[in-house]
Amino acid sequence: MIRMHHVKKGYTNPENGSYQTILNIDDLQINEGTHAAIAGPSGTGKTTLLHLLSGLINPESGTITIGDVDITKLSESQRDRFRADNIGYVFQSFNLLDGFTALENVQLGMMFSGKAASKSRAEEVLAQVGLTDRLHYKPSQLSVGQQQRVCVARALVNDPKIILADEPTGNLDPSSSAEVLRLLKNAAEGKVLLVVTHESDVISQFERVLDILTLTPSPDLAVK
Ligand SMILES: Nc1ncnc2c1ncn2[C@@H]1O[C@H](COP(=O)(O)OP(=O)(O)OP(=O)(O)O)[C@@H](O)[C@H]1O
Ligand SMILES: [Mg+2]
Questions:
Q1: C-beta of 22 in contact with ligand 1 (< 6 A)
Q2: Is the distance from the beta carbon of residue 47 to the nearest atom of ligand 1 less than 6 Å?
Q3: Which of 38, 59, 127, 177 has the greatest number of C-beta atoms within 10 Å?
Q4: What are the beta bridge partners of residue 10?
């Protein structure tokens, strides 16, 4: 269902202007129904991998096929639309809109996909993450763990085919963490769920673990 083929992505090193390869993925296939953890040291490209899969960034070369669409061939606005229709994304850095309440942030997630911003559906997913009593709080009025749960609710609200979650339990206590993971897995039953995590008890709940360093023999980072 998802295939990355000969994908290369790097960045210009701001210190010396040279190009540095971050990801160099020969062939990665992720079938429908796969739930996998993505693990690896800080700074090795886990977030970059999720950004590529969601079309937030494009690789320098290679193809990224989701279903029968090569998203690298789409324009930026087409990729935005594709993401809204197909992908639920839990950002490592949250990306909540400060001026809006938890409920409005989740409703906005629906509007981008062209669906009606159903208040009751937004309330339902916020209830699932245990935030019924925080619907009208703005991000600055929420704890970090609560903000993280708003992000999870926003990612689930459109019932996406693919869920990409970048350290979705990084700021949660063990019981909230287990609950959020259970929610993500339930929401992704029969679908694709990729979770970046450093936590061994989260990793242990996945049959498939993608080790970013094995996946991408990345010469520029390997020498460090
Ligand atoms: N815009 C950029 N310009 C230059 N280098 C960048 C840029 N964005 C990311 N990088 C580099 O790419 C590498 C991979 O970044 P990425 O955010 O994917 O790491 P990560 O594995 O998610 O790390 P972490 O576990 O700390 O979140 C890092 O070493 C980072 O310095
Ligand atoms: Mg990251």
A1: yes
A2: yes
A3: 38
A4: 21
Nearest to 94 by CA among 159, 155, 43: 155
Q: Which fold has domain 2-97+158-222?
A: Rossmann fold (3.40.50)
**Which residues place a Cβ less than 5 A from the ion ligand 2?**
46-47, 92
Token pair belonging to 147? 């903000």
**Residue 219 reports pLDDT greater than 70:** no
Q: Where are the domains of the chain?
A: 2-97+158-222
Q: Which two tokens stand for residue 42?
A: 């800080």
Rg (CA), the chain: 17
Residue 21 Cβ inside 6 Å of ligand 1? The answer reads no
Say how many Å lie between the CA of residue 135 and the centre of ligand 1. 33
pLDDT classification of 216: cutoffs 50, 70, 90: confident
Helix/strand/coil for 4: strand
